[in-house]
Amino acid sequence: MRNGGKCEQCGGGMGFKNRHARFCSTRCRVRSHRAVHTPRIPAELTSRSRWIRCTATKRPITATGSPATSTDAKTWTDYATAAASTKGAGLGFVLNGDGLAVLDLDHCLIDGKPTPAAQKVLDRFPRAWVEVSPSGDGLHVWGTAESQPGRKITTADGLQVEFYTRGRYMTVTGVTYRAGGTGERLQFEDLA
Question: What 8-state DSSP symbol labels residue 46?
């Protein structure tokens, strides 16, 4: 008997007929599939109409495929429209100085695990939502900060970190590395 005779989604009994199945019903199978394959982007981001699409080379485009820019709100849209679009290669979120911020940690995942330098950064912001970047070997740490110019540093440990709050967009994969929200205060100055 597979899974001890319990549905992997709801924990209910499988019955004799489904004893080798993983789920007790189509409903549970679909829910399980959606839970695994649905991006877990915090509502603090999806509720704002600052979404764009981007090409494989990270050029910003609108949901209809026209050029977009992080400084022209007429080229942005809501999350549902951007997510439903098939233009380009992925999603992007515009940072406009309203308090949202991102730490972009480059080349910090090795075999899916953060380098010691990256882990130090993650430990500093334990409540922040962290997603895997499009490259698959970087992380985006989402939080809040005062509006300020973007900056790039290399930490003493060799970690490349970029910090943005405005006039920029970030690609968004929705591939959650660590669940959390965007309310964590990001202190870039302490990382150098």
Answer: H
Q: What is the pLDDT of residue 1?
A: 47
Q: What's the residue count for the chain?
A: 192
Take residue 25 and report the two structure tokens written for it: 């019903």
Instruction: Name the residue among 185, 181, 183 with its Cα closest to residue 129.
Output: 181
Q: How far apart are CA 162 and CA 133, in angstroms?
A: 13
Helices then strands, counting H and E runs in the chain, come out as 4, 12
pLDDT tens-digit map of 59-68 = 999 999 999 9
pLDDT at 10: 75
Q: Nearest CA to 114 among 127, 133, 97?
A: 133
Whether the CB-CB separation of 105 and 158 falls below 8 Å is answered with no
User: What is the spatial distance between Cα 23 and Cα 40, in angstroms, rounded to a whole number?
Assistant: 23
What is the rounded average pLDDT of the residues 80-102?
Answer: 96
Amino acid, res. 109: L
**Contact in structure between 46 and 29 (CB atoms under 8 Å):** no
- For the annotated catalytic residues, the residue numbers are 104, 106, 140, 162
Residue 186, amino acid: L
The whole-angstrom separation of Cα 171 and Cα 167 is 14
